[in-house]
Target: Trypsin family protein
Amino acid sequence: MTSPSPPVLSTTTSAGQQPVETNAAYFSWPNSSRLIDAAEDRANYFGNLLKGVLPETLNRLPTGQRATTLLELMTIRAFHSKILRRCSLGTAIGFRIRRGLLTDIPAILVFVARKVHRQWLTHIQCLPSALEGPGGVWCDVDVVEFSYYGAPAATPKEHMHSELVDDLRGSGRCIGSGSQVANQETYGTLGAIVKSRTGNRQVGFLTNRHVAVNLDYPNQKMFHPLPPCLGPGVYLGAVERATSFITDDRWYGIFAGTNPETFVRADGAFIAFDEDLNMSNVTTSVKGIGEIGDVKVIDLQSPISSLIGKQVAKVGRSSGLTTGTIMSYALEYNDEKGNCFFTDFLVVGENQETFDLEGDSGSLILLTGQNTDEKPRPIGIIWGGTANRGRLKLKVGQPPENWTSGVDLGRLLDHLELDLITTNKSLQAALQDQRNVFAAGIDSTVGESSPPKEKSEEDHEPLGIIKLQEVPRGEFMHEEHQFIESFSARSPTYEIGKSETSNANNLSPLKLEAQDIFVSLQLGEPHTKKRKLAGSSSLGENLG
Model:
């Protein structure tokens, strides 16, 4: 099944005009009417394929062909979702884990609160040893303990102090992948330098939506290393478009589960660089690693071994350079409201070390590869983890391990209509392309515009449409962003003015005039405004 093409992310214009990009931010959101339309298609799809699925296997192995691709594992899991949900916290696909090490045995990983021997369980509590899908294709079932220990442990605080980390937080002269970026209240990590495929072909950067977007503020501005109300910093630009959740059929190109309310965590935001930013200070290389290669696109038809077990690295503003292993893909979990969620990667750090810390959200996940001559290839970006809610016990006799969740970079770039920029030469070419498009737009505007005196206030079009919706949230995940301390008690307007006065000699030039337009976010399709539910958490209250 092919995935429907994503909606065009552009501003609403009057009749007869072509849509163009502006500095208004657009927030892509799953359309509720489309979910209803797709529910029947989903039911028919699984109904037809279930006719060829055999019952669960408790005491014997199937005799058909063993699964070899990511798609086959996802299909088998989808058909047996009721059995797997019966006594699990969530599932993922990958290889069986033995004594803390990955094998080459394809398996569905089932996460449980406590792993015990079969003899202490009733028949209904036992998970099958293998599951069979359409055409007799089958795989193992591997039970992995997801350990909770009383009250949630505190999220690991930043404890890294090195030349690299200091450089990422503002002591270096360049900004690039791994550098600290901040909005008015939280900070995170710059993921990658990118360019827009559409509109004005803007050049900017990619990070997490939860790092860049704060609906309590009218302007979604980003700075490095800090906003002017808190210290020295330069204005980088404003959010152009962002997304949090996408339906499974649009993301994977298939129905990944039987639940009509199934979403994939696609936590990304595109921030276009401000026209006054000195682009000579922007680099496409990853600090601590160097130049990177092209995006690693994940094809579900590919062998499981093309992804699972691969070594990865990341550079983040909190923990610097760390390494890890991709342990599983397409992690699935359900919340108490009946929603089903997916997140793409589950990464565990090397040697029992955590792969990320608070504030590393947005960091680029890079495939390091066996060949030292091969450039690391971007494959995802970090969006969070469960360091403060639970840990994976992968090896008997060893303590549980922290883990990190990530977003599939190739799919995120396609949805946000972006291309990765991997070299400084291609960055200069992209900037020239942006200037050419901008110049052509000015020439067209000058030729078509009317004298200012002929225009009235009634002729102005609004920048966007506000439509606030409650964000569906599961209890299994934790966003790894970091609050900027001592901010909440201050007035943003007062502090910006105060900072500009007291730190005038220390701050880089900040363009705060032209960007102070009160833009709005378009959440999904333009329908009637919806009031934010009472008691719902703001972005800054989602740490849990």
Residues 45 and 59 are 30 Å apart (CA to CA). The chain has two domains: 52-147, 156-432+463-529. The first helix runs from residue 32 to 50.
